[in-house]
Write a structure and sequence with these properties.
The protein is α/β, with parallel strands linked by helices. Helices cover 33% and strands 27% of the residues. The structure holds adenosine-5'-triphosphate and magnesium ion. The site of adenosine-5'-triphosphate has 11 residues, from helix 1.
Length: 226
């Protein structure tokens, strides 16, 4: 469970998030929408521990992650799956190697890596392209690689900030389908996007941020892609 309490972030007197109270249960698929500058990425960065709030707390499974020391924070971050708009793939590594690398840095052995990488490649439908380099992939395939990489540590929570921002609508839809499939398998998914039209037919819980405040939090009738 994730609990944001009176979360406030200010930059030089400019309030970017103000008194955010939000509770997210395990297994939810929650979409964070709102215009550019509303504070979505700031909220997400605080949740990933990349940014400290000015005031308030974020607790994840009972731990206030805004107060963790370096080592605990690193441990916490390794348990998250994080996906960005710009994929962040290593250009000189293949799809397989990009995903494997996330496990190598944690000291996993070769056999374990091969098994897991093949498994997550299957989840995102990229088995055939596993020996391709990023330059040989479409935008959608790059993002699927990034999602596969985010899955190697079996995260309970997957956080995606504008994962469809660089994609055409059809590839964007594919990405949402994959996120939904991951959610159906038990992972909590938090998706931030300013492209509400893309998610309109998909989402169950939609939290709308505007000028740093939650202006609505609705359970919307969802259409299932999977
Ligand atoms: N390092 C910073 N210093 C000062 N202001 C910042 C900083 N980072 C973000 N901001 C401001 O915080 C506000 C919220 O930014 P944020 O990136 O969270 O918005 P967003 O909802 O993710 O927007 P978008 O849809 O464009 O991604 C913006 O007004 C931005 O200018
Ligand atoms: Mg943003």
């Amino acid at each position: 469970m994730i609990l944001f309490k009176s979360l406030t972030k200010r930059y030089d007197g400019h309030t970017v998030l103000q008194d955010i109270d939000l509770q997210i249960s395990g297994g939810e698929f929650i979409t964070l929408v709102g215009p550019s500058g509303a504070g979505k990425s700031t909220l997400i960065q605080i949740l990933t521990g990349a940014l400290k709030p000015t005031r308030g707390s974020v607790s994840v499974d009972g731990y206030n992650i805004t107060k963790l020391d370096r080592a605990s924070l690193q441990k916490y971050r390794r348990k998250l799956g994080i996906v960005f708009q710009d994929f962040k793939l290593l250009p000189h590594k293949t799809v397989f190697e990009n995903i494997a690398f996330a496990m190598e840095v944690c000291g996993a052995d070769e056999k374990e890596i091969r098994k897991k990488v093949n498994e997550v490649l299957e989840v995102v439908g990229l088995t055939k392209q596993k020996n391709h380099f990023p330059r040989q992939l479409s935008g959608g395939e790059k993002q699927r690689t990034a999602i596969a990489r985010a899955l190697v540590h079996n995260p309970k929570l997957l956080i995606a900030d504008e994962p469809t921002g660089n994609l055409d609508p059809a590839s964007g839809k594919e990405i949402l389908q994959i996120l939904q499939k991951i959610n159906v398998n038990g992972t909590t998914v938090i998706l931030a996007t300013h492209n509400k039209s893309l998610v309109d037919r998909l989402m169950r819980r939609v939290v709308n941020l505007k000028e740093g405040k939650i202006v609505s939090d609705k359970q919307e009738a969802g259409y299932d892609y999977v």
